[in-house]
């Protein structure tokens, strides 16, 4: 049996009477690319916040990288990387300074930072612009730099929160190639997106509707189950179902 | 931990030195503000143009005009011929005051009958008009004194005034403490709330919160450079005050700097508090401008005296930290008092700081829930 790097049981978050996340259970295996889908307001962000130790669950339990999300969230933070939609680099810092800063806050020592920096610069072919401000880079480069920077401390799991927002399709495809590479190295990718074509790239996909996980399987099986050609279709059918219930 | 902290501070320093606007606010503003207050916003004046309507036209009235001219405060714009000409000068803005010497001036001057000199001013600028009238009146009184070598009336009540701690009534004595208080507030509170809001806007705050950095370290890392810079600014303003405007520091310099440090902490805690409730830089800017700057300028007693305000504004002024800090500054710099005289102000300021820190801590926790 493959190792479960994320294991969640009945995870719930309530804000007053409203359950933003309602008893979700799932697991993610090591090296998997796990798609975490859902419309805006479905509870994705709240769920991610609980997994990354930013928010305490109201009920339920779970482990991330082998640590309890209720008690050991400080330890979890050291084992995960996080990249958001905004790429979150400092535009007024150079490429090198950004890498150095993030290396610094993850407690890497000088030698480690040096190695990491040249490694990232080489991999991304950014050596020539190492001392240029991030502001001057094209969006696609920033995106890949942000991704590399989020893994500066060699985390087990990388959380990507809508990592391809606002980027054109060609660059998006390139980015997914990078994601594949990283997954092959044995890192787990936990990715949210609202591009349904991207969902096809994932190993398994979960779809959240109104705080619950309504579907979870490989893209192929989901399409088969919902009898449709694309993930878009799966999504629409799920959304319609939940509308009927109301 | 120290290393991580240093990495953070270094990053913050890059932000500051690469943003020309920040640099300008940090070092341009204190200097400009001090010089502005020092040279432009002042109650003292020189060479104000006045008109004179001399109906008397004799030796005594001529001497009086000479006396007024010689003071250096007034310059005669023109000598009017009739009352009709009077308004013209005001309308054109060429004159600020008209002095009318009655035709029986000389005759009554050495007499027991009172003589009346009229002073007419431009009331659309009331503060200035008031000051002009005061200057002119005292000059006329002076003139009268000079003419009567010996006192004709032995029973006169003589009034002697002395302004303690600021005998020359230098406005610098008031505005240097006020400016220090304002500058520290702007830099510590506004700049920190802006920089924290910026991280939120950029989405980097999320990354920092997901990282193993303790939240306290994030806040400390962000405020430390600004704390140091505002302290440097405080010293800069004090140096300008002492060497350019001759403001004394009668009390202990060490005590003064220690109090600046306390106030910096107060302002920083206010700044972080503002940043916990603002999502964008604009939001933070509005909150610090409207919520901090305006009241601190208007209600701290810096520009308008608190005592002459409606009671409700006086109470508002009492909850503004700047009010107490200006009291402390004036106490140490001008009156040279020690701890025991301003212990109340210090206690209030410390209490406020603790309160702000507590609120910040609470807000920060709620955000993480």
Could you explain the architecture of this structure?
The complex is a heterodimer of chains A (246) and B (369). By secondary structure, chain A is of the alpha/beta class. Chain A has helices at residues 44-51, 73-79, 95-105, 110-123, 139-150, 169-184, 196-199, 219-225, 231-245; strands spanning 4-15, 18-29, 33-38, 59-64, 67-68, 80-83, 157-161, 188-192, 204-209, 212-217. Chain B has helices at residues 2-18, 20-40, 59-70, 86-92, 105-109, 126-147, 172-202, 204-210, 215-244, 253-277, 281-299, 311-318, 321-335, 343-368, and strands spanning 48-54, 74-80, 97-101, 118-121. Chain B has a four-stranded mixed sheet with strand order 2-1-3-4, with helices on both faces. Chain B is elongated, with a radius of gyration of 28 Å. The two termini of chain B are 25 Å apart. Chain B contains 14 helices and four strands. In chain B, α3 (59-70) links the parallel β1 (48-54) and β2 (74-80). Chain B has 369 residues and is of the alpha/beta class. Chain B is 66% helix and 6% strand. Chains A and B meet through α2, β6 and α3 of A and α1 and α8 of B.
Could you spell the SSE succession of chain A in H and E letters? Answer: EEEHEEHEHHHEHEHEEHH
Percentage of residues in helical conformation of chain A: 25-40%
Shape of chain A: globular
Structural class of chain B: alpha/beta
Largest sheet of chain B: 4 strands, mixed
């Amino acid at each position: 049996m493959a190792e479960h790097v994320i294991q969640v049981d009945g995870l719930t978050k309530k804000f007053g009477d409203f359950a933003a996340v309602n008893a979700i259970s799932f697991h993610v295996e090591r090296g998997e690319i796990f798609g975490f889908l859902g419309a805006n307001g479905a509870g994705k962000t709240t769920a991610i916040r609980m997994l990354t130790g930013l928010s305490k669950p109201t009920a339920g339990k779970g482990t991330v990288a082998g640590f309890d999300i209720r008690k050991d969230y400080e330890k979890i933070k050291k084992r995960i990387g996080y990249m958001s939609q905004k790429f979150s680099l400092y535009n007024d810092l150079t490429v090198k300074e950004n890498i150095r800063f993030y290396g610094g806050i993850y407690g890497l020592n000088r030698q480690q930072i040096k190695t990491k920096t040249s490694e990232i610069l080489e991999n991304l072919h950014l050596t020539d612009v190492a001392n240029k401000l991030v502001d001057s880079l094209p969006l696609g480069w920033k995106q890949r730099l942000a991704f590399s920077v989020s893994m500066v401390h060699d985390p087990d799991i990388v959380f990507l929160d809508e990592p391809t927002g606002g980027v054109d399709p060609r660059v998006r495809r390139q980015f997914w190639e990078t994601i594949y590479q990283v997954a092959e190295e044995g890192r787990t990718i936990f990715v949210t997106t609202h591009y349904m074509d991207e969902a096809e790239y994932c190993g398994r996909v979960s779809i959240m509707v109104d705080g619950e996980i309504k579907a979870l399987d490989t893209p192929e099986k989901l399409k088969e189950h919902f009898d449709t050609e694309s993930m878009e279709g799966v999504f629409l059918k799920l959304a319609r179902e939940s509308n009927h219930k109301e | 931990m120290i290393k991580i902290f240093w990495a953070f501070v270094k990053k913050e320093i890059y932000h500051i030195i690469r943003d020309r606007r920040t640099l300008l606010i940090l070092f341009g503003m204190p200097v400009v503000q001090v010089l502005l207050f020092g040279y432009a916003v002042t109650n003292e004046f020189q060479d104000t143009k006045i008109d004179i309507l001399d109906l008397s036209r004799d030796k005594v009235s001529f001497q009086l005009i000479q006396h007024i001219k010689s003071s250096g405060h007034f310059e005669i714009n023109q000598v009017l011929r009739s009352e009709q000409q009077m308004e013209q000068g005001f309308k054109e803005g060429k004159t600020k005051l008209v002095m009318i010497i009655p035709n029986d001036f000389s005759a009554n001057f050495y007499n027991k009958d009172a003589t009346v000199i009229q002073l007419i001013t431009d009331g659309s600028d009331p503060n200035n008009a008031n000051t002009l009238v005061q200057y002119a009146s005292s000059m006329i009184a002076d003139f009268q004194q000079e003419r009567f070598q010996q006192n004709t009336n032995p029973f006169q009540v003589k009034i002697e005034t002395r302004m303690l701690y600021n005998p020359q009534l230098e406005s610098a004595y008031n505005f240097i403490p006020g400016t220090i208080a304002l500058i520290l507030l702007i830099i510590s509170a506004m700049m920190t709330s802006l920089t924290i809001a910026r991280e939120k806007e950029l989405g980097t705050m999320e990354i920092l919160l997901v990282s193993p950095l303790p939240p306290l370290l994030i806040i400390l890392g962000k405020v430390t450079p600004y704390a140091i810079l505002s302290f440097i600014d405080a010293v800069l303003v004090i140096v300008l005050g002492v060497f350019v405007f001759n403001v004394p520091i009668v009390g202990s310099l060490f005590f003064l700097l220690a109090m600046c440090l306390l106030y910096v902490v107060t302002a920083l805690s206010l700044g972080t508090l503002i940043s916990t409730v603002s999502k964008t830089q604009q939001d933070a800017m509005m909150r610090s401008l409207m919520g901090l700057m305006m009241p601190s300028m208007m209600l701290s007693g810096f520009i308008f005296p608190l005592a002459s305000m409606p009671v409700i504004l006086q109470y508002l002024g009492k909850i503004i930290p700047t009010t107490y800090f200006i009291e402390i500054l004036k106490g140490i710099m001008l009156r040279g008092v020690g701890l025991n005289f301003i212990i109340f102000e210090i206690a209030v300021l410390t209490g406020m700081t603790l309160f702000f820190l507590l609120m910040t801590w609470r807000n920060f926790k709620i955000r993480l829930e």
